[in-house]
Amino acid sequence: MKAIVCHDFAPLEQLAFEDWPTPDTGADEALVNVAAIGVNFPDALLVQGLYQAKPERPFVPGAEFSGVVEAVGENVTHLKKGDRVVGLSTHYSACAEQISVPAARLIPVPDHIPMQEAAGLILAHGTAHYALKQRANLQPGETLLVLGAAGGTGLAAVQIGKAMGATVIAGCSTDEKLNLAKENGADVLINYNSDDLHTQLRELTKGKGVDVVYDPIGGELFNVCSRNMAPAGRLLVVGFAGGDIPKFPVNLALVKEYAVVGVFFGAFTRRDPAAYADNMRELLAWYKDGKVQVHIDATYPLAQTAEAFAAVMHRKARGKLIITP
């Protein structure tokens, strides 16, 4: 089969499109013909050696995928050949024509969800859902600021925040991105490249501060948000797409009485698979009801995976990028 192979940590253009062995299928696993692969920021970091995980090389990157079951191991009873599924790989390997994963990590895909959209639903929406539900305990009527609100996980946070009854403030770097956030339910728009974010937040909240901040960007935007939190607020640390990991002055948490909360979705799916499954069922129900959707900005053939990774790395994507083998 064909796959994208990372032979060593190196610039994206050194990823290889080549033959790779078809994976074996263990007794508790399922072999899936991959239909679509969701592109995520950590994918681009991983192959360059910039992520906290450092896989043995060579390896096939990619974690989020949809596809059709080709075969199942002898212990698998809840899936069969021909089932439409979506899943997360435990050891990457999604950027290939086939993937073998523990069957327990596969979720059936209803017929009304296109496979490309299914491949973009787990990580972006799953992260936002876990962050806002389990980590922030977001309540109806609270204010939610989403940074990078037109990116894959930012757009998901806008949609899910609205589904949970919050007033959603979208922060983006361009007016074009803000328009997309508005189309997906944002109530208030802030261009933090042209407007002063600190002033805007103080005026919008009448000095109270924001109840919940969803921050996948980091850097100076985190620093501004840390000074504009409401009492009992929750500042969610989702990632550092801006490239700069900020240093937090902990005295602010004491004086302003809010919490800085880490969000690591991958660890959650492994630590509490039952809650993860419950979240996915809720997400799929919201999708069916039209409360969430996957906005696909562009699709790439498998051979152009490096270009897709570069686009998300440089924050050019609006919504999700999808690779199709």
Automatic annotation (TrEMBL):
* Superkingdom per UniProt: Bacteria
The Enoyl reductase (ER) domain, residue ranges: 10-323
List the residue ranges forming a coiled coil, or say none. Answer: none
What SUPFAM superfamilies does this protein map onto? GroES-like, NAD(P)-binding Rossmann-fold domains
Put simply, this protein is called NADPH:quinone oxidoreductase family protein
Signal peptide extent: none
InterPro entries, sorted:
ADH-like_C, ADH-like_N, ER, GroES-like_sf, NAD(P)-bd_dom_sf, Quin_OxRdtase/zeta-crystal_CS, Zn-ADH-like_protein
Classification from the root reads: Bacteria, Pseudomonadati, Pseudomonadota, Gammaproteobacteria, Alteromonadales
